[in-house]
Write a structure and sequence with these properties.
Blueprint lengths: L26 H4 L1
Length: 31
């Protein structure tokens, strides 16, 4: 996998946050 950086296109949260193992998790949980 690429850099562990979540993009706004992936979940819709602020870029720069570390992506959790559960990539499919909703943005509400990641927040």
């Amino acid at each position: 996998l690429p850099k562990p950086v979540v993009t706004p296109k992936s979940t819709g949260i602020i870029p720069g946050h570390k992506v959790s193992k559960r990539k499919s998790a909703p943005a509400k949980l990641t927040r």
